[in-house]
Amino acid sequence: MADLDPQETRLVLDPAVRDDARSRLRSIRGHVEGILRMLERDDVYCVDALKQIKAVNGALAKTGDMILRCHLKHHVVTAHERGDDEAIVAELMDILKYR
Amino acid sequence: MADLDPQETRLVLDPAVRDDARSRLRSIRGHVEGILRMLERDDVYCVDALKQIKAVNGALAKTGDMILRCHLKHHVVTAHERGDDEAIVAELMDILKYR
Amino acid sequence: MADLDPQETRLVLDPAVRDDARSRLRSIRGHVEGILRMLERDDVYCVDALKQIKAVNGALAKTGDMILRCHLKHHVVTAHERGDDEAIVAELMDILKYR
Amino acid sequence: MADLDPQETRLVLDPAVRDDARSRLRSIRGHVEGILRMLERDDVYCVDALKQIKAVNGALAKTGDMILRCHLKHHVVTAHERGDDEAIVAELMDILKYR
Known about the structure:
Four copies of one chain form a homotetramer. Helices cover 73% and strands 0% of the residues of chain A.
């Protein structure tokens, strides 16, 4: 984690984005439970299970995008003013690998 | 779903792969709960949350790979003999989009 | 490469797909040259260069999909009959990593 | 393109990165020509062609990463000071889709 002023390291998700992220993750958890049930039945077709896993991956990616957008808006665009641009850019390039 | 002989449409995951897939999904569910807890605290750094989401995505992708490998081994390599190769190939290309 | 009967290892791209793949690659080459010219000018905006690289990546992925579909149709769905399913599946899973 | 002060919209690739990006693109162009030659021969195995396309995709992605890192360092971390953070963030989220 970039050695930032502690105040700036808070997850500055504005309330609407945070609530949205949490409700998406709750439905993702429900979706994972659905795949678990699916894998207990021996009459499911593997491509149907693959489609469910792909859908969960997509929902997770959207949740990540919301948090990434907030991070860009609140931490990255102000990094030069704070003086931690090197660390913030390095951290961001790392998280963006294999997105 | 390909109009296959019903017997072939079962998720032919051999027991070891199926158990492995289920235990991975149980740990993925636990991991999602961890991110939910993380997002309740207002002192978490957004990049830490992004790393957790990325880790869950990776674990889901591995679970999907296991099921895909089984599907290739049991359904795809025998499709020509069954006569449903067109449907099996179309279905597979669809599931592989944006992997 | 799977130890296949030499006859089956030919790139069984039917003529239409092969011509299409070659014309796409020729336009991709032209597109790469365009980015090279872009990077010589010092008035280009980096996001414009990134968009061009992304477009080339997309065109390459489409060309790859065409060849993959042909490989599935001609080599993979008949692998069990030939007896090289293990090698064909291993090779396919390798090529699909980080798609 | 973000309505930036024209001076800031130049591709601020420092000379070393720009030269590196251009030499990578020249070798990518050569690599694409190699795949074109490969697709003329009818004895090539499709998976070999797919591996070459994947390698070119990887080289393009690395070139893009170099330009992205420079954009983050020179344009994004200073966006708040310039006052165009909204446009810069929107543009960045767009370019990062399906990376």
